[in-house]
Amino acid sequence: MSTRVGKSYEYNGVCDVCGFVYKNKDLHKRWDGFRVCKADWETRNLADFYDTPNDTHVLPWTRPDGNNHETTWTPVFTGLTQTPGTGSITITGTYKQDAINAHVVNFQIEILITGNATTAAAAATVTMPVSPVSAGTTRVMDSQAVLLGKGTVSIGSTGSLPNWSALNRTVIISGSYGI
After folding, report:
1. pTM here?
2. Domain segments of the chain: what residues?
C-alpha cells in the first residue's frame, strides 16, 4: 500500500464567466478578481490607466467690475396708498448702474408688508434713482412670483406703475432703462 497521495490538491471549480467546471489548476485569477478559464482570460484595458489632464483654467489675477456696483436709494411714490393697520410697511430700493453696457440702470424696489397692512396703487408713479434719457420697463410682482402688472419708465425722472392691491404680501418692483 502506498503512502503517497497523488493530486490531492486538485479539485473542481466553476469559471465565473462561462460557468463550466474546470480543475482548480486551470482557473486563473483575473484582474477584476474573477476565477476564469483560459478562454475567458483577458488583460486589463489600458484605458483604465489613462489619466485625463487637468483642464481647469485659472486666471492669474482678477479685478472686480467697479462699474457695476449696487447702490441704495429711497423711492418716492405718488399714487401709492399705504394702510399699516396692525402691521408695517417697509420700502427699500436698490439699483445698479452699468457704464459699460449701454448705460443701463437695473433697479429693484421691495415693499415689505407684514401683519394686516395693505398697499394699493392707482395711476402711481415712482421717481427713478437716475434720470432716464431712454425708455424702459417696470414689472410688479408679489412674493409668490405672481405678476401684478407691467409699467414703463418714460424719459424724464419717473416710472409708471400698474394698478395693484396687496395684503400681507411682499411686492417687488423691478425694471431697467437707459441713461
Report:
1. 0.58
2. 12-45, 70-178
